[in-house]
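Researcher: Please predict.
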Amino acid sequence: MRVISFCADGIIDAADKGFYDWVSGQDADIICIQNLKAQEHEIQADRFHPEGMYGYFFDNYEGKNGVGIYVRELPRAIMTGLGMTDRDIEARYIQADFERVSIGCLLAPNAYGQDDNAQADKMAFMDQYQAHLNKIRHKRREYIICGSWFSAQTPQDIQHAKAAEGKPGFTLEESEWFDTLYRDAGYCDAFRRVNSDSDEFTWWPEGDRKNDGWRSDTQIVSEGLRQRVEYGFGYKNKAFSSHAPIVMDYDIELS
């Protein structure tokens, strides 16, 4: 099964830059998109709907944020929001449930370059989300969470780690968030299961793809899928946004 995740910075702009032309040749079973910056009624044209796939979207009435999932097989259920009453209106999460596997698409808050209040707001969200991940790991199903996290876990994940240390996106608190999730809750970074290279960046917040790379987009999988990760790469030959699409292959059948 092939899962593609991509933070679009606005799906209409990404489409204009050729995202759907590229993704149509990737033979994906699941496509997760974060930061649509568009409402569903604005993306009804055929070019926003890959052939043979069903699209589901969760958008913000203000045209901010927004997430979506395309699936080749009809899911058993679609869930929007995380049960965080004060957060769900921000349209940051959508999930497709299949018989034994659930695919989540998450857009975390971005505090990069912002003040302490923005960082505190982000970590409040992340702590709530980690509590959610701890809760669902006891269910009789596995999870793939396609996330745009706007955070890096280790110095290996940032091109200029020393300059970023202690700043939003690479604080000790954020690093420990991932450490705790992987160590105590059994989740793992799917990409790092198959690729340990230090130059696999996915986000360029300043727009310079030669100089300011971060690996802040990844697919996190639950413990039972740890051995099912087969292959992964970030597509960087063409820029559709400030983020690169992440392509992961799993030894999984949805039905």
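Model: The mean pLDDT is 95.
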